[in-house]
């Protein structure tokens, strides 16, 4: 009668021989390859089993493949410490475990302050039978449209926020490290166009300002409101904007007068403003009234009459 096989025990942890490092299911380990010239294999421990007496410890592992071990081989965007989590499971002796390692997610790996010899990262799952990857699509960057390799320096455009390899934009790594600001070719062209348009706009505005007529008030030729004098307490300012003449009249009364006089002062100022506007629009109208349109002629005549009456009434 055959002897029954001794029952196996499932262990919660295992101490690596020759060290005090303890591994548990879920930890990643480095396993000794058959040939000493090869790099150690990377695996994730799924479970740990031992014989009835605690000897002959076995580990069930799920292998990580290096890019060169996959069907497609290593490509330009693969990092030096990149591995793929495969669907290949195996049972190995615990004696082949050389040490413990850490396989980070791609996001956490890029945040490491320093990458140690035991640090790896994984962003793909690998189907060993078909050579396919999950996910099968990831974001690409630069003009070369390659996924990000954390081992390669990339610089970000401040305009479009895309990332570029220095070599792809005819720049050395040393030159890229010295940059304080960077704009890609597309954004630089747009900025140049914006700058040209802005300069042209400023020039046109400057020319428009220079072409605006300078109007001297007949009541105050110096262009400022005098501080003294009862007869010189009015100031007229005229502005020409976007082809439309706008007359702004500010009036100040230096002496106390009756309400009727105040109303007349306002009327006088308004008439003076209309008179000035007509004179600006039709400079020759002062000398030859026949050049004025009929409506302007009526306004001009009314202003002239009211102005003369105002001067006589106020003794200005």
Automatic annotation (TrEMBL):
Pfam families per record: BAH, PHD
Basic and acidic residues biased stretches: 191-210
Alphabetical keyword list: Metal-binding, Zinc, Zinc-finger
Keyword GTP-binding among record annotations: no
A GO term for molecular function: zinc ion binding
UniProt cross-references to InterPro entries, sorted A to Z: BAH_dom, BAH_sf, Zinc_finger_PHD-type_CS, Znf_FYVE_PHD, Znf_PHD, Znf_PHD-finger, Znf_RING/FYVE/PHD
CDD domains: BAH_BAHCC1
Protein name: Chromatin remodeling protein EBS isoform X1
Organism: Elaeis guineensis var. tenera
